[in-house]
Amino acid sequence: MSSRGFGAVLPWIALALLAGSRSRRDAAPARTGGHPGGRPEDERPETRTAPHDPDEWMATRLASLRRVIPEFFPAADAWTREQLARAFLTLFWRETGRSAEFNNNPGNLTLWGNQPGHWHTLPNRDLHYRAYDSLDEGIRDFVRVISSQHYRPATDMLVHFPVNVVGWYEDLALRGYSGHTPAKLEEIRREATNLRQRIENWTRAHEAH
Fold this sequence. Notes:
By secondary structure, this protein is mainly α. It contains seven helices and three strands, in the order αααβββαααα. The chain has helices at residues 3-17, 54-72, 78-96, 135-146, 152-160, 165-174, 182-207; strands at residues 110-111, 119-120, 128-130. A three-stranded antiparallel beta sheet has the order 1-3-2, with no helix packed on it. Helix 1 packs parallel to helix 3 (78-96) and helix 2 crosses helix 3 (78-96). The longest helix is centred in the C-terminal third of the chain and has 26 residues, at 182-207. The chain is globular.
């Protein structure tokens, strides 16, 4: 098997290790700490934007990622961009469980301190989650955040070694994107097989040529 052929298989192994199928409403990234950001007049109602149909969720999120990623990674080849799209999609799945996505914010980004932008809250949460008018806008902001100076070392690692999705996740978490404990990583590994198979089945059924 060629190195590219072997590389095409390995991303799914690593990709699955990041995944989970349950809701992550409580896993919003803590950017800077302090008080929640956003002005009162920029608050938006909590609006569920995830499609009920899992096929539609997968197709629309992948399509948006494929549109946005070249804006931020113009030098990456097509294969690398596709691995990035699938890695980011797995993070979205883990954050939202596919169903708990609100206001076109699949990455569960939050506002802190003096950060501007529209926002919404969730029941029994003190966090201000970012709110967007379109899916592309939300995904573009997600890619912007993980490409920012704070998270760029982790994302650069993923660009150069797309099979190391777990290492990327760990680095993001250590830099403040989400909680990071051995127990959470073990949970990710326990959930990996199911998501890996579902993603592979979906791409085989819907995108095979």
